[in-house]
Amino acid sequence: MQMQAWMKAAAIALALGAAGVAYVSATRPGGLSGEDAASSAPGSGWGMIRPDASPGMATPAVGAKAGLSLEQVRHKLFKEGSFQGTEPSGDWCVVAAKLSPCADLRKRFEYYILGLGEVTIEDIRALVADEARRAHGDELAGAIMSVWDRYWQLRSHTWRNAFVQSDRNTWMPAFEEQRMVRRQILGEDWARAFFADDETKFKQYVAQMDSGQPPPPDPGEPVPQMAPGKDPAAVHAERVARYGQDAANRLAKADEEWADWERRLAAARTEWDRLKGAGQLSDVQRRQDMQAYIASHFQADEHLRVKALLNI
User: Fold this and answer.
1) What is the pLDDT of residues 290-311, one digit of tens each?
2) CA distance 163 to 171
3) pLDDT of residue 31
4) What is Dmax (Cα atoms) for the chain?
5) Residue 217 has what pLDDT?
6) Around Cβ 134, how many Cβ atoms within 10 Å?
7) Backbone angles phi and psi of 122, in degrees to 5
8) Residues near 302 by Cβ (< 8 Å), separated by ≥ 6?
């Protein structure tokens, strides 16, 4: 089982280059942003892409019409589609009025590419160009779109060396081809900015397997959680072994915050039940009293969530 988990993790790292990474760093109401989730998860920055998927093949835009206006594209994605309630991840990588290679531009590109299937790639390219132009003007937008075109060329590249997860002999040829082609298409600086972290992680996995040491934990495995009957010390020790002391400490802090939230929510539910049963109070008075209770026991950004959960 350990070897199977290791192979899955290594496959994820290598498959990343075959088809591109789906960065979903979009902020949604009532939850962590994708950036926060990615930074707190082991194996941060890896795209969970099926290694057996045909590399470089774009998802067809089912039902989408070519040549939509920018207003129509925005409406289709941000008002009707999957981008509702989100904001673009990453960054344009413009520093001191100059485009500089950085990984965040890949994240920005991948955010928009997630719209494939709702609109065409031509529509997405037009949207990215317009967004870049609005943010930084025509000249820098042109430079950004030059990188976009090369990145999309790489993303739609047909690879000669197939990656087969169960065949260790296919891993390095596929990796070396991807590494070389990235630099041929993007240039050394942008290839390093976009993929150096992924390449380093993959090589570390291969080296660890070759050394005969126990494989690292599968990034897809659930994080060990506290639960009734579990020894907290044992759970913490397992987290330290998997993710390191700092990450285990952050998870412990998250556990404490969650337990505090659950306790306060349970108390609020009890108070709301008491007020609903208070016959001497009018409905307006009950709601006013509960509003005061929530204000004194919850942060302002928690109020809407509490009211929704209590059906107030």
Assistant:
1) 999 999 999 999 999 999 999 8
2) 6
3) 33
4) 78
5) 62
6) 9
7) -65, -40
8) none
